[in-house]
Amino acid sequence: MSRFVFATAEYASGDWESAPALPANLIDSVARYTSIEVAPAGVSVRLDSDELFNYPFVWLTGHLPVRFTEAERRNLKRYVERGGFMMVDDHNHDITGVFHQTATEEIERLFGKLEQVPNDHEIYRCFFTFENGPPHTNHELNGWGDDLLHPHLYAIFVGPSTGDRRRDRIGLLYSNKDYSSEWNFHPETKRTMQQDPTKFGVNLIVYALTR
Amino acid sequence: MTTALELVRRARRRLAAVVALSALLWGVSAALAVVAAAALVRLVVPLPAAVYAALWPLAGLAALASAGVVVWRGRGVRSLERVALWIEERQPELRFALVTAIDPRVAPAHSHAALHAEAQRADVSGLVGRATRRALGRALGAVAAFVVVVSVLQPQALLRAAGEELVRRTVPDAEAALANRLARLTARVVPPAYSRLPEATLENPDGISALIGSRITFAGSGPADGVVAVLGGDTLAAASDGRSRWGVEVTMPDAPTVVAFHDREYRRLVVLEPRADSVPVVRLRLPARDTTYQTVPRGRLVVEAELADDIGLDYGVVEYMVTKGGQESFETKLSYGPRVAFGNARTAVLREAVDLDTMGLGPGTVLHIRVVAFDGNDVTGPGKGVSETRTLRIAEPEDSVSINPAPPLPIDSMWMSQRRLNMKTDTLIRNKPRLDLRTFVNTSSAYGNAQDEIRQRAIAVIRLLEDDGVGGTFETQVSRMLREAVDLMYEARVYLGIAQPDSAMPYMVRVLEILDEIRLANRYYLRGVVLPEVVNVERVRLTGEDPAGKEVREPRRVLEDVRLRLAARIERAAALARSDPQAAADSLVYVRVAALVEAPAVAEALEGAIEQLRRGVAADSALARVRRALEPAPVRLRGPVEWGGIP
Hints:
By secondary structure, chain A is α/β, with parallel strands linked by helices. Chain A contains 6 helices and 7 strands, in the order βαββαβαβαββαα. Chain A has one domain: Rossmann fold (3-Layer(aba) Sandwich).
């Protein structure tokens, strides 16, 4: 069985590399809390390349406008619909910001409306349990960005939809909570923290690998 | 005592009854004769539908003609004189006493007693009785003969079919009123007004493909009472149009569905296949590619795009987004160029020149440009199409966009060096006739060294690109291209080293092309390479203080294959094909609606199978095509798989 490799999506517009310490931090958490075989270093992968399909979990973030190229759009759609998990995080933590507006426009153009993820969804329970849904970040609590506490994440659900059963697997998860800032620190810093804020990142990866 | 006049009157009444009865019997005989003739012919050759339709009218006409002839021949009973003369003709011994006696003006009874006495001796009753027996006997004989013939030929089915054909041709409404009002269905499709597409009328459709939002009016013959259409969860009652026709109006939904019409025990299914109005397609011609300016650009920038839409374009506009800032603080300004109307044209070109001086550009600014087009769809739209976005970056002296200070790829410098080397080699080849051998060889050899120097730089870049930071390597698209260039550089260097620049030149040209491709394709020039940070996984393994794992975890659920689900439904329907083809067709109609979205190829194959089942012919081959369409598309492998490998 191959190791899990944390991948960051490179896209043509914007600043895809704006959270450079985040991959190492989540890799550290995966190793710290789970027995998942994990590669010690993350990679970045172009959104328009076939290599994207080598990675079951891809992180996409940025502050700047997101305008995908046709090839990126095509690849992203195939990736999500064929079982990949894309985490898109608004590094601006601002619903009036340009990342949020352009990224959601691109996503909804490709997949249709983003749906609210209920706070009892299994993504909040698949490893650690988060009773109240997505954990808040310091950036939210300190009133930065849009000065809002976002109670929900949003998603594109994929999978078969038959009869009463709706599509229920998350293929793309969208967050305004700015986990990119929250988790963008050196893993060693965790030693000084009372609570490890990256535990939810473990849930994201476990969910992507097991659902 | 009965007078002569009364005798003749009585005779006339009886003769009139005989004529009437005789006319009736001969009419019946004639009609039976026509039916018998048609039945006889039908025994030999099948009758065309026109004959069926004409049979009843023909029999009626024969009956009328025959009765008319009898009535015409007996028309004398209208006149007393003619009846008296008829009697005189058969009793000449009366010597016109009866004819004279019935006229009171010529021979009143009180003055011509002898004449009247003579007339009263006439045997009128016997004469009329014999005539009655003779006339009615012949007519009854004819009727009896034809009844025998007809009863032998058993023409009931012929008469029923003839009646139905006549009704179908002459009174179409009556058929529907009496029979299945869904048998003949028309659908008038009115596309949404914005599309400017013409209306269309379809006869007996099994499926209708039209734009979402089209108004579809189904109509059939007969009264509206009891006819309903079920669409999704709605039941729509048919309305009467006042002309013995029923009608139901529906709107084309945005997902395939079935309209089920019901009329008493009759049912009919029609598939609604919505056609979505595509959003405009916008292809940006200019600017041709993303660019990084080393200085703040000035002057006018031309933006040009090709636009196309399946129905018609409404308007288009150029969108500009200027982003400034860095770290966690960014400011974005969105602006639009003037709106350009296209008047519902299907294709158009939008061209606009923007003054860069007015956009407030500066070092570190990022300008995103794209063209947005809208169609005139006022039902589900407007459809919005956007072009690719061109990203124009303006470099800062110290790149603020890059958060990792790794050096930029030296592709550009390599390209410059290779280009200069190619030009110099080309000059060397042209000057070869004027140079002495030693100078030529030395120069070529020096160029070979220069080529090798570029090659070493390329190898260094490959190492940088492929280093994963933990002693391993991973290939990237750029490194793959560079490897090809390195191989070509080696060939060029060898030829230059042995003073054969002519042979080296093709390799050098190709090297330059590859470097150019990489240079232009490298959209991440400013940001350099992000070196991944390495985690000591084994050191931290399971040292977390809050390990989870108390809860029982379920394995990943096997995803349901759409095709398997369709296959199961199709097999259930196919099992009905022999015993009840119409039920099988109805079931497949519903499967087809599901397949229209999930597996269009299966839907297409199902159409043929449904059509064959509806016609009552064997649908085995059509169902086999459906099963083939259910198979997944074959996978094309790039080459033989590795030994023991799984593709």
